[in-house]
Amino acid sequence: xxxxxxxxxxxxxxxxxxxxxxxxxxxxxxxxxxxxxxxxxxxxxxxxxxxxxxxxxxxxxxxxxxxxxxxxxxxxxxxxxxxxxxxxxxxxxxxxxxxxxxxxxxxxxxxxxxxxxxxxxxxxxxxxxxxxxxxxxxxxxxxxxxxxxxxxxxxxxxxxxxxxxxxxxxx
Length: 171
Known about the structure:
This protein has 171 residues and is of the alpha+beta class.
């Protein structure tokens, strides 16, 4: 279980690839409080998606991974974007004690550089949901980024006028 504390909004991004391997071989399950509906985004192997509480952090907020059977865990990693300061705790279920215990071992923090292709990953996530075009008003806060380098987003300009631009998502 990963509990969030002392953070306005808790965000959990990609978890290590090992979860993907373990999940495919077990009856594992994911749960979270609040916002249990989006917890799978922290484990979908896409750097463009993440799980968020969408509300202020409170005692008892958590993300829980149940592997369906006892598993040896040699590492738990919490990765967040630079604009989030997650000060969470990693807890493990101790079968013998019948309770959650705080994980011991080395705790360290570091800075991860954003992936240079994050824009294209974000557009890919939109395309995977069946969207083929984006209409971006010129006064939209981030429109300059789309106009300045549509190729980095995986977009091509299809039309423009009336204060907006229509982009086609390039597969």
